[in-house]
From TrEMBL:
One of its GO terms (biological process) is tRNA threonylcarbamoyladenosine modification. Coiled coil: none annotated. InterPro entries: ATPase_NBD, Gcp-like_dom, T6A_TsaB. The lineage of its organism: Bacteria, Bacillati, Bacillota, Clostridia, Peptostreptococcales. PANTHER family: TRNA N6-ADENOSINE THREONYLCARBAMOYLTRANSFERASE, TRNA THREONYLCARBAMOYLADENOSINE BIOSYNTHESIS PROTEIN TSAB. It comes from Peptoclostridium acidaminophilum DSM 3953. GO terms for cellular component: cytosol. CDD domains: ASKHA_NBD_TsaB. This is ABC-type nitrate/sulfonate/bicarbonate transport system, periplasmic component YdiC. Gene3D superfamilies: 3.30.420.40. It comes from the Bacteria. Residues 24-200 form the Gcp-like domain.
Amino acid sequence: MNIIGIDTSSAVATVALMNESKLIAEYTLNHKKSHSTNLMPMLDEMLKACEMKTSDIDLIAVCNGPGSFTGIRIGVATAKALSHVLNVPIVAVNSLEVLAFNSVSSYSYVMPMMDAQRGQVYSALYRCDGQVVELEGMGVKTIEEVLSQIEGLGERVMVLGEASELYRDELSKLSNAVIPPRSQRMARASSVCELAAKKYSCGEISNGFELRPVYIRKSQAEVQYEEKMKKALGNE
């Protein structure tokens, strides 16, 4: 089974091609945030380099958030289009689970964090003893809440994701927070493929028509609009 993995939920755009026996190719671009113009060329170039066609693909795996609202929409829309055109199933995985999978054989506690803006992060807590086990589901917290949670765990915690760099100074003050090398703390489409393959084997297939991005919180535009409306109504 040939699987294409897609993750554009952060500043990183990453795609991968994997089958049952090996990772065939992985293409990662962490330069600017131009997923709308780069994603399809990346997929096309990867398939050409592997001497494969879209008709050789059996499963589409996509990260559906949380993360960058625009990035998630691009990735999900592309995956849905490919699934529809190729008539192949699609499996969705969340971005925090994808990051946690990077450290499946490293630290027992892993906390992926992605920037949610306004001093907040998307986070979740996993235990990774040979496999990814969710201890706390994804949610939105202030950075202060996350720092307190990490300190309270006592044991060393691997912190992954773009927010680990954004809040590096705060995290460095905790004796049990560990920030791994750059290559390990960013999204990888190969992890999307691995997780999707496991979900697929368990029958967790997404309906391409109903698959939606996972945002968790409202966008800044929605928040500003609601505030504007409250003020307008309050003046009536």
